[in-house]
């Protein structure tokens, strides 16, 4: 092909590009205005025209307006006290002081009991949801999408209503049985939840605006993914709490320990980069955090296993209608004797050791928090890089937003819930009894006769003739 013929074809290729490549449904391409296409291009929502490229380019990264999350919100008195230090050490002391303050607040909340913990988890969930949704709103704010924020918060209320209603019916059936309004809500809970969600779904469809369909569906997906990440996993945190405060405290504490120790080891000894998503993370911090977390979790498990307040499942006192944490500790919180492996016996010159079984479970929890938990942080780092932001928000000086501190906690909560269901929890007699109390009297009587016959056939109960005598 000659140079002249190639030049003749160039206008035709340009025209094809403008028409969307020349293929597909002509009606769909005609309905997309130049203004909408330009808007999508500015947000980086189009496909790569020139194939794949290395790294994040301006073409595929949304142009996020600046926010207060990127500003320094350190209190003035801290800035003055640390003004003579290099930036690296200044950040070290700011993070240290705020970390100690947050840990002290965590101990205070634990002391205040399970009710306070539930409200704190709900507050953190709402704040994390707000931080992620706000990023989406900033990205697409120029389009003034109708009802976006209102529908996002509406869906948050719907999903919370569903999850917390399920928890109340599952764990506190006896309380529901005594209250007439709660009986109605419990019986039709899932239908009510679905009806509420359906109303939001219809409102979203009615809010669709021509030329912004694609953006509105992006934000619809954004909201639902946020609900999946934040609300679902925060609900699992509360489920773990009801199994016993130890299942709430230990997982959260070991993630905090791993975060602190990995930072300290990386700060003082870090030389080898760990992952490109987080350039400041090092192998030295990762390995040092692992061993420190396993040791910390082992001794924390030993300490907490000695107290009923931490090991007993959270229940309802029928007389006071308040939460109670009194029980006979289960086997995993009773000291047992274990025979050590031969290699360890020769090293320690000791054949057996007394441990709480929960201490063994804590090793697995700590290993997950140290080896897999950080990937929640890497995921969050990738998300922030995708939208060119430093932190989710600026709530905590030196730390960023609430979501910056809980990116690993939610992943840990899910693992803990799955671990309990798979390796620890068996059938719960109190929960089965609560479900039986919600049945009709004739159903309860039928179950009683069936259970009575079953126990008599197994020889656990004496025969009917012997009972008559």
TrEMBL record:
Cited Pfam families: CTP_transf_1
InterPro entries linked to this entry: PC_trans, PC_Trfase_euk
Organism: Mastacembelus armatus
Keyword terms: Lipid biosynthesis, Lipid metabolism, Membrane, Nucleotidyltransferase, Phospholipid biosynthesis, Phospholipid metabolism, Transferase, Transmembrane, Transmembrane helix
EC number: 2.7.7.41
Name used for this protein in its record: Phosphatidate cytidylyltransferase
Lineage of the species this protein comes from: Eukaryota, Metazoa, Chordata, Craniata, Vertebrata
Role, per record: Catalyzes the conversion of phosphatidic acid (PA) to CDP-diacylglycerol (CDP-DAG), an essential intermediate in the synthesis of phosphatidylglycerol, cardiolipin and phosphatidylinositol.
Enzyme class per UniProt: transferase
Catalyzed reaction equations: 1-octadecanoyl-2-(9Z-octadecenoyl)-sn-glycero-3-phosphate + CTP + H(+) = 1-octadecanoyl-2-(9Z-octadecenoyl)-sn-glycero-3-cytidine-5'-diphosphate + diphosphate; 1-octadecanoyl-2-(9Z,12Z-octadecadienoyl)-sn-glycero-3-phosphate + CTP + H(+) = 1-octadecanoyl-2-(9Z,12Z-octadecadienoyl)-sn-glycero-3-cytidine-5'-diphosphate + diphosphate; 1,2-di-(5Z,8Z,11Z,14Z)-eicosatetraenoyl-sn-glycero-3-phosphate + CTP + H(+) = 1,2-di-(5Z,8Z,11Z,14Z-eicosatetraenoyl)-sn-glycero-3-cytidine-5'-diphosphate + diphosphate; 1,2-di-(9Z-octadecenoyl)-sn-glycero-3-phosphate + CTP + H(+) = 1,2-di-(9Z-octadecenoyl)-sn-glycero-3-cytidine-5'-diphosphate + diphosphate
């Amino acid at each position: 092909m000659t140079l002249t013929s190639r030049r003749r074809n160039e206008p035709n290729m340009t025209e094809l590009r403008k028409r969307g490549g020349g293929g597909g449904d002509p009606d769909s391409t005609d309905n997309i205005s130049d203004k909408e296409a330009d808007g999508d291009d500015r947000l980086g929502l189009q496909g790569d025209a020139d194939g794949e490229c290395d790294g994040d380019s301006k073409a595929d990264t949304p142009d996020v307006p600046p926010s207060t999350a990127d500003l320094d919100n350190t209190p003035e008195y801290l800035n003055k006290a640390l003004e003579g230090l290099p930036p690296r050490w200044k950040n070290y002391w700011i993070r240290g002081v705020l970390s100690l303050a947050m840990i002290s607040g965590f101990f205070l909340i634990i002391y205040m009991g399970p009710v306070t913990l539930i409200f704190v988890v709900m507050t953190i969930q709402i704040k994390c949801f707000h931080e992620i949704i706000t990023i989406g709103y900033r990205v697409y704010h120029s389009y003034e999408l109708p009802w976006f924020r209102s529908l996002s918060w509406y869906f948050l209320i719907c999903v919370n209503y569903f999850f917390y209603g399920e928890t109340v019916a599952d764990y506190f059936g006896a309380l529901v049985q005594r209250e007439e309004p709660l009986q109605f809500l419990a019986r039709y809970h899932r239908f009510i939840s679905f009806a509420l969600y359906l109303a939001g779904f219809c409102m979203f469809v009615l809010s669709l605006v021509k030329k912004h369909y694609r953006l509105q569906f992006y934000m619809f997906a954004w909201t639902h993914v946020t609900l999946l990440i934040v609300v679902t996993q925060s609900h699992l945190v509360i489920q773990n709490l009801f199994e016993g405060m130890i299942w709430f405290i230990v997982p959260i504490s070991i993630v905090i320990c791993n975060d602190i120790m990995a930072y300290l080891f990386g700060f003082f000894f870090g030389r080898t980069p760990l992952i490109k998503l987080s350039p400041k993370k090092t192998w030295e911090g990762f390995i040092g955090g692992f061993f420190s977390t396993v040791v910390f979790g082992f001794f924390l498990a030993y300490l907490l296993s000695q107290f009923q307040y931490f090991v007993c499942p959270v229940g309802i006192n029928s007389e006071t209608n308040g939460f109670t944490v009194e029980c006979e500790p289960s086997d995993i919180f009773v000291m047992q004797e274990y025979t050590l492996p031969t290699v360890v016996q020769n090293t320690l010159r000791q054949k057996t050791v007394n441990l709480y079984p929960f201490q063994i479970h804590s090793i697995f929890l700590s290993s997950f928090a140290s080896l897999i938990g950080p990937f929640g942080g890497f995921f969050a780092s990738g998300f922030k890089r995708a939208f060119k932001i430093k932190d989710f928000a600026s709530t905590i000086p030196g730390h960023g937003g609430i979501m910056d501190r809980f990116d690993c906690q939610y992943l840990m909560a899910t693992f803990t819930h799955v671990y309990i269901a798979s390796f620890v929890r068996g059938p719960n007699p109190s929960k089965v009894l609560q479900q039986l109390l919600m049945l009709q009297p004739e159903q309860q009587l039928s179950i009683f006769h069936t259970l009575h016959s079953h126990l008599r056939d197994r020889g656990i109960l004496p025969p009917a003739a012997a009972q008559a005598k």
